[in-house]
Amino acid sequence: MxxxxxxxxxxxxxxxxxxxxxxLIRASEAVAKGDKSTRLEIKxxxxxxxxxxxxxxxxxxxxxxxxxxxLQNWSQQLEYKVQKKSEELGQAQNELINIERIASLGKLxxxxxxxxxxxxxxxxxxxxxISKQLTNQELDPVKKEAMLKHLKLIENETKRxxxxxxxxxxxxxxxxxxxxxxHLHEILHETxxxxxxxxxxxxxxxxxDFSAKADLINCSPNQIKQICIAILVNASEAxxxxxxxxxxxxxxxxxxxxxxxxxxxxxxxxEDIPHIFEPFFSTKEKESGIGLGLAIVxxxxxxxxxxxxxxxxxxxxxxxxxxxxxxxx
Length: 329
Hints:
The chain has helices at 2-32, 48-134, 141-172, 184-201, 221-239, 293-303, and strands at residues 180-183, 205-210, 216-219, 244-253, 256-263, 307-313, 317-325. The chain has 329 residues and is α+β, with helices and mostly antiparallel strands. The protein has a domain at 179-329: 2-Layer Sandwich (Heat Shock Protein 90), CATH 3.30.565.10.
């Protein structure tokens, strides 16, 4: 009887306690491995305690699955909202870039308009001169040569006006293409030609020294032109009449090219240097600047994976450096 009782207890324990516990352990291991569909089988002849444990375990898994699904949905919604906000911020940044470009274009136009008047006046004068000469039917070789010389002058001055206007139109045009491989010196030569007119009108000595040996970069050409013009406009305002502005390039190492724009103007106070790239920060108390120029410059340089540095001595000079990565060939 003792032996039979012992066998009965062993079988009863295995069936009613051990087997359900093993099933609980296997289910727990499956859940730990990421199987959220695992559930314990509940049999009608189970012990009440084991049935309660199974119900509680299955309920816990149901709640866990519901919470996981909610987290996934929330994560997807959050990701979508972040994407939408990023797109909105990108659009806002593009609009700010365009606003600052228009502001710089306005400043350029004021000085360029005066510069265009000079060749236009020459064209008008020589056109009237040729018109008077044409009224005389007798044209000797000397007069003919003079007329041809005047016509050539008119042609050259007209082309110069066209180049000035073309530079302004190119600068004002919105970027429609992405980044592309370009030689930086080509962009800087165009920028120099565009800025040489307002610098000349303001009686500022504008110098260029493009000494970098490697200059191939991946960029948006119009944005590179914009950041250089923004810095050059600030430099021209800082030096005033009879000042000097220098733009030069060099290779600090084999993987980068650096643009240095130096002026001998009023300089920037040491405590202001950490803030000059912040939006709406401006040291131009009497000017109409709204403090977006250098903030836009900083954003564009960052989008080109570059770095911006500033060195300044009050009353002596200021140098703004832009370091950009090269395309290694």
